[in-house]
Write a structure and sequence with these properties.
mainly alpha
């Protein structure tokens, strides 16, 4: 994982939506819709690892720049 993060920094790939310059207020306003869509997404429903709304909430929080 450490190497992936180093490569991400070398290539100047944003680590989260905040670094990418996304309007976090828009994300916050649409949070429930984003999470509902993610739960219905084919990538989530066919993933061999079961995913909960709590899991997706944590991922979204990290994408928004929360630690």
């Amino acid at each position: 994982m450490r190497r992936i993060i180093e490569l991400q920094k070398q290539l100047k790939i944003p680590a989260n939506l905040k670094e990418q310059g996304a309007d976090l207020n828009v994300v916050k306003e649409n949070r429930d819709e984003i999470l509902a869509a993610a739960m219905q997404d084919i990538c989530t429903t066919t993933n061999p690892r079961e995913t909960s709304i709590e899991d997706l909430t944590k991922i979204l929080d990290r994408l928004m720049g929360a630690k």
